[in-house]
Amino acid sequence: MLSEWAARMSPLASPFVFSYRATSGLKFLLTSHTLSPCRMRCFLAGSALAVVMALGPSLGGFKGEVFAQTADADPTLSDLRGGLDGEPPLRDDNLDGIDDRTQPDVVRAPSDVSFDEPIEDADGGALGDDNRRSNTDNADGRQRGRLPTDAARARGQLSAQPTTAATPESEGNQRVRRAQPVGEPGADGEITPLVNQAVAPIEGRRGTPDDDPYAALGIRTGSFDWFPVLTQTLGYTSNADAAANGQPSVFSQTQAEVSVRSNWSLHELRGQVSLGYQTFFSDDTNDVPTLNASTEYRHDLSREWLVRLGGSYGLTTESPSSDNLLLPATATISERPFVHSGGAFAQVERTGGRLNLRLRGSFDRQSFGDVETNGFGTITQDDRNNTLYLLTARVGYEVSPAIQPFLEASVGTRQFDEAVDRNGNERSSIIGALRGGLAVDFGEKWSGEASVGYRFEDFDDAALSTLAGLTVDGSLVWSPRRLTTITATGSTDFSTATAANENGSITYTGQLQWVYDLRPHLSLNASVLGSLRQFDSTGVDETTLQAQAGFEWRFNRNLALIGNVGYETVDSSNAGEDYDAFTARAGLRWQQ
User: Which of 3, 147, 215, 497 is the most buried (most CB within 10 A)?
Assistant: First the structure.
């Protein structure tokens, strides 16, 4: 402390030494010489001028508060340090003893900086006019301008925050605004800094969200990602006919699929096309071609409202053992008939709040191809062609972000192309359904929904009783541990009939699937399926059980080895319709 005090007092030492020497000289002159009054006055005036010249620079560089307040009261005092020997007066607005004209230009503040807001101190109070000078940080971290004294810091009169620099045109004591952080304002008013933010690459390979090193990356074309998949398997089945007394056969199955999705900031477009062909080496009449295509467009109206539009088409063949094929007792088919299905829907929904709403309108079309028989010619099935129209409304309420009970109601009609079928029955009907359930979302552990309800189908023909029953639907995904996923699904389907005076059947299906990633490149899977089909008019029940286990060995992102084995058994209350089948297959899958 003593050394600091000595350093601060050193600038005042020289004028006092000069004063002491001048006083000694004056005493010598007064005692040793006789001076006239005029000479004495000139000597005293010169001595006073010398004292002022000696004290001037030291007093100008002194940062004490008393001199600063005096300079504030009368700024013209700073002119005493200039104007000597013909030099222009010294310009020292900061009172630091340095000519401001020799300093670098002050960086101009932005044009939107306001000079009407007082600087606030650390306690939130406005500073006085004597403390509103503009201070700018220089390169070594010190502030230009007045230096605060310890007393001023103790009184809390100075702000701890730096302020923006005033423009050169602003003279005197100006009010400036505190510098604001640079960034993006959030919804809560906080500023998110822009520094050290991750920037997405302009070009390059795209990783998957879960960083799976074996997942397909797709092909980018413009704003769309395409994902092609090609699968080829070779297998064996003990029952190629899927019927009683079916024959075994080796088969080959080829599946080609491509899916696409958009990469838009708003809205979304998805599509998928799948082509498949399964051929049996023992009997080509059992060959099964398949075609499936679907697309869906989502249009975001706002943060809560959106519209979905979609369509689908499917092509397959009907099994010779189907109970809906009405053939003569001794007839056999020479070629499987085609079954065409397609539809479209429009849906508007509200999400994002506690109250969720959904309104959906749809139609689904089914048409059946002619049956080619051996010895009985061609049998038409135009009377089976029908269109189903449905209007569905759903209301859900979020009890919590993870739990949402809902209620759903549907009304519609099924219209057949021919008012009366080959048996003289009018099968067009009115449909109504109501179900309630619970949707859950506990992140990766639990998600899905389940519901229980009631549905009826009332036919135009009085000879056909109303087909009605309990409905159970749902899908739940559970991950009890990392790398393990268990999925449970359930559905209820209503099917029409073709036999005379039969109203149709209700099928309840439940399935449990298990997938375990044993290694990053190796996964195991297994599933169990059970279904119960009830024919309402005849009371016939048909039970189906299926079980299968398989694996997937991924060599890289593009190629994988797949295989599975499965067993199916069908038990019917009608004699002679029971059968079982064992199937095994293996093959390769390529994806991009």
Answer: 497
Between 499 and 55, the more confident residue is: 499
Distances (CA, A) of 51 to 18, 35, 63, 296: 8, 21, 20, 95
Entry pTM: 0.65
Give which of 315, 282, 236, 214 is closest to 587, Cα–Cα: 236
Tokens of 473: 């639907």
Residue 409: HSE in the Cβ half-sphere, 13 Å Cα cutoff: 2
What tokens does 591 get? 């994806």
Helix (H) or strand (E) holding 490: strand 484-495
Distance CA 533, CA 425 (A): 23
Cα 432 to Cα 392: distance, rounded to the nearest angstrom:
10
Lookup: tokens for 216? 């397909």
Backbone angles phi, psi at 342, to 5 degrees: -165, 165
Q: Which two tokens stand for residue 319?
A: 């099994």
Element (H, E) at 134: none
Reduce the DSSP state of residue 14 to 3 states and report it.
Answer: helix
Tokens 């397909």, located at residue: 216
371-373 vs 333-335, strand pairing mode:
antiparallel
